[in-house]
Each structure stands twice: as structure tokens, then as C-alpha cells.
Design brief:
Order of helices and strands: HHHHHHHHHHHHHHHHH
Radius of gyration: 21 Å
Helix content: over 70%
Largest sheet: none
Distance between the termini: 34 Å
Oligomer: single chain
Structural class: mainly alpha
């Protein structure tokens, strides 16, 4: 295997994995809100963009045996750059919504495929020791990509709108062209710097591929279904994040909506700072402390503190919707508290996915668990905008607080080994 320093490619690879995800899930909503779409339209249509991540387990075997992981990574990065340029090119056109949504779908598909290939390449390109050493690094640079997309890019678009005297569409065009350039640069860098592990090869015949895929896929589904406490686990995976599912699409729209519509009225620059920077820092810190807590005491011990952490801080949106404060310090503090709680509480969810996926076919079963995780946000996401438009922001956030009872209910149902997650 050609030897490459992991520091040269692991950080940039996971930055490239995280950036398109946050663009599709968050930045696109902010852009469409500025273009004048209603909350119901934005939440319904952008929720469909999660579909490629939901279907990842279906085509992950093809990425595994057709071509190499390195080929998939480079191809998807080039396609991501092209789709970003496609969004920028079609914004000024007559059919801007249909065309930008098409390119966002291409971006989502490319990003989900890139995730599969990058995670597989990480295991092939590093020794077991280096995999453990760099697991924190890959997570950190994925989070940095979130800050860059949700924070920096939104602020850049806002500053360009000031520079070009309120020309919103032109500002977003330039922003997306800039990100397209970043991805072309990442493609060039990885084309040169990614190692070529001997294990990253395909040797199976075409017939063998077809038969192997079908056999493995069927057996994966059957063994997943026959796991102990299957229906309890599915209920937990689908409903633990129900409050978050109703919030995730609405909160950015609430923060930038005008006061006359019941929103806070933040500028893109303020949104990028409060939500995309301060909020994401809280999310990262909560996740780090959550991991430390589980390692010290085990998942079962920390389950209920984490349930409280992921639900109770949601009340900050009730406060913000009633106070409608314009104080950016108060808003940022509220978002930090809510996101810190979410990061801490989300640890329990991810650890349970790992716990349930244990045993034979744990990689494939974990992929199925993450598909259910995506579905858990898609279902409420489809209707969240329409419900919010009917109730208004204040009553909507109060209603979301009541859905926290569902999280407590499914958490009470799950069975977890007392020693799982505890450092031995």
C-alpha cells in the first residue's frame, strides 16, 4: 500500500463528508425562506432531500463491490461540485425552484454515496491503531464542516446581500459558486493525496456480485427482524427524537422570520453566528460530555439524564416565541443550552443503535438502524411546516413540548445491559 500520512487526508475527507449534508438539510431551507417560500412548502419539499440517506442500506452493497472506494469518493466529490454549480446556475432562471431542487437531490444522493465510500475507505486506508487514533479527528472535522456550512456560508450570503444592496438571488449564486470551487479543490487534493490500499479492490464476478448482494441483503433483513425486542427497538428509534423531528425544520425558519409573522427576525449574519456557530459549539460539547459520561457509567445509568437533556431544553423556543427578544446574546445563549442538551441526549440514541446492532452482520444492521434514524426525522418533517402555519409559532412550540412525553415513554420501554458502554 502506498503510504500517506493520515493527517493529510482524514480531516479533509470528513470535512467533504459533512459539508454537503449541512447544505442540503439547513442552508437550503434558509435560502428558500429568503426566496419567499412558505414554511409548509419549505419543510415538505426539503424533507424529501433526506431520502438518499434513508435508502443508503439499499445501495451500500453496490458501493462495496463495484469499483473501489477511492473511485467512488473521487467521483462523488466531482459530482458534488457539479451539483453545487448547478444550484448556483439555476437560481436566476424562471424554473428556479424545480431546477435547484433537482440539483439538491443530486447533491443528496452524491453525499449519501460519498458517506458510504468514505467510511469504508477509512477502515481500509488506516491500521486498527490509526482508526482508533483518528476517530475523534474525523468527528471533529465533520462538525467543523457543520459550522462552516450553517455558520460561515449563511453569514457570507448575508454579507454579500449587504454588498450588493439586497440582491438576495445574486448573493446566493455567488455563495454556491464559491462552495462548488471548494469541492473542485477537494477533488484535486484527494486525487493526489488519497492512498491506494491493496484491500480497496474488486475481484468478484458480475454473477457473483448479483447473487452475493441479494443473498446478503435478504439475510441481513431476516436476522435484523429476529433480534430480541425488535418492535420495542423500532419504536425507540422512530420516536425518541420526535420533538427534534418537529423542531429541526422549523427553528431556522422561526429565527429568520419577521416579527409580524411571529419570528425573531435575525439577519443571515446573526443566524450564522447564533445557530450555526454558538449552537453547533454547544452541540459538539454536549456530544463530547455525553460520550465521556457513558464511558464512565454505562448507557443504562445515563439514559434518563440524557432523555431529560434532549427534551427539556426545547422550552427555550417557547420562551423565545413569547419574548421575541432581539438581544443576540440571549438568543445565542438559548440556542447553546438547547443544542448542548441535544448533543448530550443524542449520545444515548446513537449508543442504543450500536447496542442493538451488535452480533452477526453488525455493520449492515447498524446501517438499517441509521435508516430508521433518518425516517424518524422525515415523518414529522413532512407535516411540521403545515402544522406550524395553522398554530403559529407560540402554540406550535408549546405543542412540541407535549411530544416530549413520547420520548420518555419509549425510553421506559427499552432493555439495555447494565454494563454496555462502560469502560472496562
Amino acid at each position: 500500500m502506498e503510504k500517506r500520512n493520515p493527517w493529510a487526508w482524514v480531516p479533509s475527507l470528513y470535512f467533504a463528508e459533512g459539508l454537503p449534508n449541512v447544505i442540503v438539510t439547513v442552508v437550503a431551507m434558509v435560502m428558500y425562506k429568503q426566496f419567499g417560500l412558505s414554511n409548509g412548502e419549505i419543510t415538505f419539499y426539503t424533507t424529501w432531500l433526506n431520502l438518499p440517506w434513508l435508502l443508503k442500506p439499499v445501495w451500500s452493497p453496490f458501493v462495496d463491490i463495484i469499483k473501489t472506494k477511492r473511485w467512488w469518493i473521487l467521483s462523488m466529490q466531482l459530482l458534488l461540485g457539479a451539483s453545487l454549480a448547478g444550484v448556483a446556475f439555476t437560481i436566476p432562471t424562471t424554473w428556479w425552484f424545480q431546477l435547484t431542487m433537482f440539483f439538491f437531490f443530486v447533491m443528496a444522493f452524491s453525499s449519501a454515496t460519498h458517506d458510504i465510500a468514505a467510511d469504508g475507505f477509512y477502515m481500509l486506508g488506516l491500521s486498527q491503531h490509526d482508526q482508533s487514533l483518528f476517530v475523534g479527528i474525523r468527528s471533529t472535522f465533520y462538525r467543523i464542516a457543520m459550522v462552516f456550512g450553517q455558520g460561515v456560508l449563511v453569514m457570507v450570503a448575508g454579507n454579500l446581500q449587504v454588498l450588493f444592496r439586497g440582491n438576495i438571488r445574486y448573493s446566493w449564486c455567488l455563495t454556491f459558486y464559491g462552495v462548488a470551487g471548494i469541492f473542485v479543490g477537494l477533488w484535486l487534493w484527494h486525487r493526489f493525496i488519497l492512498p491506494q490500499p491493496e484491500a480497496d479492490s474488486t475481484v468478484m464476478s458480475a454473477a457473483g456480485r448479483s447473487n452475493g448482494i441479494m443473498h446478503e441483503f435478504k439475510h441481513t433483513i431476516v436476522t435484523f427482524y429476529h433480534k430480541p425486542h425488535f418492535w420495542t427497538a423500532v419504536a425507540f428509534m422512530l420516536l425518541y427524537r420526535l420533538p427534534e423531528g418537529f423542531l429541526v425544520k422549523i427553528t431556522p425558519l422561526f429565527l429568520i422570520d419577521s416579527a409580524q409573522n411571529g419570528g425573531i427576525g435575525l439577519s443571515p449574519q446573526e443566524l450564522g453566528m447564533a445557530s450555526g456557530t454558538v449552537g453547533v459549539i454547544g452541540l459538539v460539547l454536549g456530544g463530547i460530555l455525553g460520550g465521556i459520561a457513558v464511558a464512565q457509567g454505562g448507557l443504562k445509568k445515563w439514559l434518563w439524564p440524557m432523555v431529560c437533556a434532549i427534551t427539556l431544553p426545547d422550552i427555550v423556543y417557547v420562551y423565545l416565541s413569547y419574548s421575541l427578544t432581539g438581544n443576540i446574546f440571549i438568543i445565542s445563549s438559548c440556542l447553546f443550552v438547547e443544542q448542548f442538551g441535544y448533543g448530550f441526549g443524542f449520545t444515548a440514541y446513537m449508543m442504543y443503535l450500536i447496542y442493538f446492532a451488535q452480533g452477526e452482520y453488525k455493520t449492515s444492521h447498524y446501517a438499517l438502524c441509521t435508516a430508521l434514524m433518518t425516517l424518524s426525522l422525515m415523518i414529522p418533517g413532512f407535516v411540521s411546516g403545515a402544522i406550524q402555519q395553522q398554530l403559529g409559532y407560540r402554540l406550535y412550540f408549546v405543542t412540541v413540548m407535549f411530544t416530549c412525553l413520547v420520548t420518555f415513554g419509549v425510553a421506559a420501554m427499552v432493555k439495555i445491559d447494565a454494563d454496555f458502554g462502560r469502560k472496562k
